[in-house]
Amino acid sequence: MKSLILVTGGTGYIGSHTAVELIENGFDTVIIDNLCNSKPEVLDGIESITGVKPYFENFDLCDLDRLRQFCKKYKSIKAIIHFAALKAVGESVEIPLDYYHNNFESLINLLRVMGEFDIPNMVFSSSCTVYGQPDKLPVTEDSPVKKASSPYGNTKQISEEIIQDVIAANPKIKAISLRYFNPIGAHPSAKIGELPLGVPLNLVPYLTQTVIGIRPELRVFGNDYDTPDGTGIRDYIYVVDLAKAHVIAVKRLLEEKNKNPYEVFNLGTGRGYSVFEIIRTFEKATGEKVKYKIYPRRPGDIAAVYADTSLANRELGWKAETSLEQTLLTAWNWEKAIRNKK
Ligand code: NAD
Ligand code: UFG
């Protein structure tokens, strides 16, 4: 019998790619999403890639009664992958209470039903934002967690603590937190990808929208950082590689191969790229020209961060496999597909 995995936020960017990988690895999936940052058509994309439409329940995880009803309906959930959260750093500074309410309430409700309905395993979406600007690069899982620079970042730090407290109180529960670096790209089929609402905040969707003609130019935020070419350095990880790590993490928990009831892994490539390197690699991969202009630094940005991924390599047997060039090409193909300019 196939194991049933609950994917919260499964119509979102990383969740939808993970649902595809789960299905392709023989799992049954049920998605909970309230569609506050995604569209139901994503389910068609998942079906057209895998031939399987995941079960889907549209409701807000902050509604505990509704979540309990859900657990009575889907009795045999073996693990939860918890993606659902609000995630815009800048917005979280403007409406912190909405972020604290949504991200904590949904997590607390899930942890509650895990106890009540004997769901033993959780994989949690954390972020490299918990490290702030690290003192040493690359950043390992042992690097200190720095004071969060935004309410969003704070929700990730405190969520990790909440999960650990619950595990300490209930030995039946196990969890893995995955700290993502910068996820980019889209499924190679161009049937699912990132759908930023309004003006994109992140580099790659802004870049692809510039090249397709929606934005006049890419704004490069600062060329005076203490980095080789002066622009910011990040560890850009292909979303499909990232999704695969979730399947491995779920299997690790199901097969009880975890070394501790709570584990943390960095998920990145282990290599940092500057904004200029991203522009050049995109141009090489696609043959398109990127129009850009230097702007002042963006408040809150750090100069450089990239992962030490040796723990995930060793313990999960996982490694990011896709080149930056291939990854940027998928982002471009997705941009063209959603603008019907294939
Ligand atoms: P996303 O916004 O595309 O997906 C999140 C999904 O959760 C959306 O479909 C949204 O509708 C849903 N959702 C939010 N609150 C909900 C609620 N209360 N009830 C039900 N559904 C709800 O985001 P993503 O980029 O796929 O990110 C997934 C997770 O990974 C998030 O927890 C995010 O904080 C984390 N993360 C993302 C990045 C990144 O750069 N994308 C980096 C590090 C960590
Ligand atoms: N950048 C630009 N122009 C843009 C957008 C970004 O030059 O239009 C630069 C930034 O200054 C930075 C780099 O490109 O140097 C990457 O910026 P992103 O906004 O794409 O990503 P961040 O590293 O700032 O943040 C992302 C997510 C956060 C998450 C963090 C770590 O947006 O939610 O990765 O996981 F917390």
Overview of the molecule:
This protein has helices spanning 13-24, 42-50, 64-73, 89-94, 96-116, 151-169, 203-212, 239-254, 275-286, 310-316, 324-338; strands spanning 4-8, 28-32, 55-57, 77-82, 121-127, 174-180, 182-184, 218-221, 233-234, 236-238, 262-267, 273-274, 292-295. Helix 1 runs parallel beside helix 2 (42-50) and helix 9 (275-286) packs across helix 11 (324-338). It is globular and about 55 Å long. With 342 residues, it is an alpha/beta fold. Helix 2 (42-50) links the parallel strand 2 (28-32) and strand 3 (55-57). The structure holds nicotinamide-adenine-dinucleotide and uridine-5'-diphosphate-4-deoxy-4-fluoro-alpha-D-galactose. Nicotinamide-adenine-dinucleotide (NAD) is lined by residues 9, 11-15, 32-38, 60-62, 83-87, 102, 106, 125, 127, 180, 182-183.
Bound molecules: nicotinamide-adenine-dinucleotide, uridine-5'-diphosphate-4-deoxy-4-fluoro-alpha-D-galactose
Silhouette = globular
Question: Would you report the number of β strands?
Answer: 13
Q: What proportion of the residues is helical, as a percent range?
A: 40-55%
Helix-strand pattern: EHEHEHEHHEHEEHEEEHEEHEHH
